[in-house]
Amino acid sequence: MKLSSKTFKDGSLIPGRCGFCVQAPRGHVRLSQNLNPHLAWSGAPAGTRSFVLTVIDADAPTKPDDVNQEGREVPADLPRAEFVHWLMVDIPADVTEIAEGSGSNGVTVKGKSAPSGPAGARQGVNDYTGWFAGDAGMAGTYLGYDGPCPPWNDARVHHYTFTIHATDLDQAKVKGAYTLAELRKALDGHVLASASIRGRYNLNARMRVK
């Protein structure tokens, strides 16, 4: 299989319009357009019944102590963990493309309750659900795509892996606001082929990233 995007090239920077936040002229960051990137895939094997999409940042800090703190920086060598940005199951087998901005266009405070997507597809929770849990103004269930917003003082550039899985499932055995852990369990033994591309994103003004 092959996965590609008109929005960004594999290994390149994800454009700011696809971020949850961008660098601000004053201060540190501001909300962005939060457009989902364009994605297109081909070469699914015979027997494919549906596709599953995941978007995961593998560079999320494991300790919050220095995150977005004035006069401090998140060390590059700090152990990292996954942060989920998009989960989608039951994408019909005849769908091979998602247009930029078709699933997310703007930041929805408290999260999108019914994100748009291919007919029949179901979208899971992303990790902004947990990130904003203690914020009265932003707390909610964040479904579908929400773009990059790494700490503005992180010394490490974040990498976002977009993966499309061809499966033999008519419907994935997940319910409601499902999580990545639940999805991985449901996919065990049902993935026929996969393809990935990776983009980078940075909000640390001290770092000049190209």
UniProtKB/TrEMBL annotation:
NCBIfam families: YbhB/YbcL family Raf kinase inhibitor-like protein. InterPro entries: PEBP, PEBP-like_sf, YbhB_YbcL/LppC-like. It holds the Pfam family PBP. It comes from Stenotrophobium rhamnosiphilum. This is Phospholipid-binding protein.
